[in-house]
Design goal:
eight-stranded antiparallel β-sheet, Cyclophilin, 367 residues, Serine Threonine Protein Phosphatase 5, Tetratricopeptide repeat
């Protein structure tokens, strides 16, 4: 047991995997609490386990609570060993995010429960015992806090946040954060940039995003749309908006425009037309501020073309016709645009004729 001081939690939201959080436990400061946590993570039958348990409370800018392996409500979760939790209180400050804590005054009936801090809780330091800290996967906690809606009065999540797997890691054991299949593909980067030690450098972000985009392009050419999308979306995360000065914003937005276009190219093949429309609208909004960008006319044309096709496939003949009408003015010799314009025009006229007939009958009937 003395060689185990790390545990992991694989997290999903609404059945969509978010990734793995790795927690370094303070086994020297609270050995019995850590022994209890390690055993619950180890999936040792017949002992209970955190596997498939849920986050039961999210208090924004404060904490995320979990660990009730009995009810997933915050009302259960017995400790496995006979010890008094309060005797392992120590003075580690509770002054930052990503700390793993348990309540000092918890009873044996719910002492499997724990929380992760999402802000400075130093004003509550007498209430919590800090038992560890997240060392990898911090961005997963951020996504849970910011992206999962809650019932305001209770903090109960309105969608399932599940620990689909968990485990205890031996000293020196690979933590499994990097997917081995991704590494074999040439993707050696964490899923989210807040865990990449060098990601604060703009140049580093751009290099990583470019490599991921190129991997996505290779998969797209092989018609492996799922993997292409994974790489494009991951690249986009490395360019995610933060505090930027004007020069950084211009450069990053130009890279984002290209990635959004690539994602739209995947989505249109997957026939996710609502997503394509949303993506292309974003591209066209950004294009207005980057008129001097190299190749901007081609990017704008592709975005409007894909949006027009997606409008058509969703039965929005008018907006489809508007997009293709605008495109044909700027690309008068393009036969593909001309063909789509004709199809949109035919469907729009058919729709308008049908609507006219429908409304004309309304005034012919008597009450």
């Amino acid at each position: 047991m003395q060689h185990i001081d790390r545990v992991f939690f694989d997290v999903s939201v609404k059945d969509k995997p978010l990734g793995r959080m790795v927690v370094k436990l303070f086994t020297d400061k609270c050995p019995n609490i850590c022994k209890n946590l390690i055993t619950l993570c180890a999936n040792t039958v017949p002992e209970p386990s955190y596997k498939n348990t849920k986050v039961f409370r999210i208090i924004k800018k404060m904490m995320i609570q979990a660990g009730d392996y009995e009810f997933n409500t915050g009302e259960g979760g017995k400790q496995l060993f006979d010890f008094d939790v309060a005797t392992e209180y120590h003075s580690h400050p509770c002054d930052t995010s990503y700390l793993m804590c348990i309540e000092k005054e918890c009873s044996r009936k719910n002492s499997s429960q724990f929380l992760f801090t999402t802000s400075n809780l130093s004003y509550m330091k007498e209430k919590f015992i800090v038992v560890g800290e997240i060392v990898k996967g911090k961005s997963i906690l951020n996504r849970i806090e910011r992206g999962v809606p809650t019932v305001d009065s209770t903090g109960q999540p309105t969608m399932d946040v599940v620990f689909t797997d968990c485990g205890a890691l031996q000293e020196g054991e690979d933590d499994g954060v990097l997917d081995k299949s991704c590494v074999e593909e040439g993707d050696i980067y964490p899923q989210y940039p807040t865990d990449e030690e060098e990601s604060e450098s703009l140049q580093k972000k751009l290099e990583i995003a470019e490599k991921l985009k190129n991997l996505g392009n290779n998969f797209f050419k092989q018609n492996d749309l799922k993997k292409a999308l994974e790489k494009y979306e991951k690249a986009f995360r490395y360019l995610a908006p933060g505090l930027r000065d004007d020069s950084e914003r211009k450069l990053l937005e130009e890279k984002e425009i290209i990635l959004l276009g690539n994602i739209a190219a995947v989505k249109i093949k997957q026939e996710e037309h609502a997503a394509v429309i949303e993506l292309c609208c974003k591209i066209l909004q950004l294009v207005e501020y980057h008129t001097d960008m190299e190749g901007i006319h081609v990017i704008e044309t592709k975005a409007k073309f894909r949006r027009g096709v997606s409008y058509f496939n969703r039965g929005d003949w008018l907006n489809s016709y508007v997009d293709f009408s605008d495109l044909i003015e700027k690309n008068p010799s393009n036969k593909e645009i001309e063909s789509w314009l004709l199809k949109a025009k035919v469907e729009l006229e058919r729709y308008e004729k049908k609507e006219k007939q429908t409304y004309s009958k309304l005034f012919q009937d008597v009450e």
